[in-house]
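Hi R.,

Here's the chain you asked about this morning:
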Amino acid sequence: MNERFEFRNILPEEADQAAAIEKICFPPNEACSESMMRERVLAAPELFLVAVDRETGKIAGFLNGLATNEDLFRDAFFTDAGLQDPAGRNVMLLGLDVLPEYRGQGLAKEIVSRYLCREREKNRKMLVLTCLESKVEMYQKMGFQKKGIAESSWGGEQWYEMYCMLNG
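And the predicted structure, written out as tokens:
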């Protein structure tokens, strides 16, 4: 993976590229808006992990989140980058995006694996995400545990809350 992709934090000038990828990867009722993506990039670039295709110089996929001391996921994390607390013990994951042409090659798993290692090294306690039922098994294979049906009603969907403990 290292030969093909560079893994790093997002750059401010890549916010629009991330927003465009989000529109490809998520339906309109779930996708992060362009303005909100820019706010997230400004508030927490260190909580983005992008995989840049070394051949094209473009982002192939990314994972992003916000740090907080809260333990439960709530929809406000999707819409308020001001909830970012750099010293937060937990990270609320807001989106795992991999462009269709890069799927099925292990890129999503690699991004999540690197993100888990990075946040464990920062002494974060836990990562929390919400996902549709169809993605529960995928996240379980990546080390997450299903907590149950989430309180989130983002995009009018039923979500499952999942978590991964990093440090006791």
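The chain has a mean pLDDT of 96.

Let me know if you need anything else.
M.
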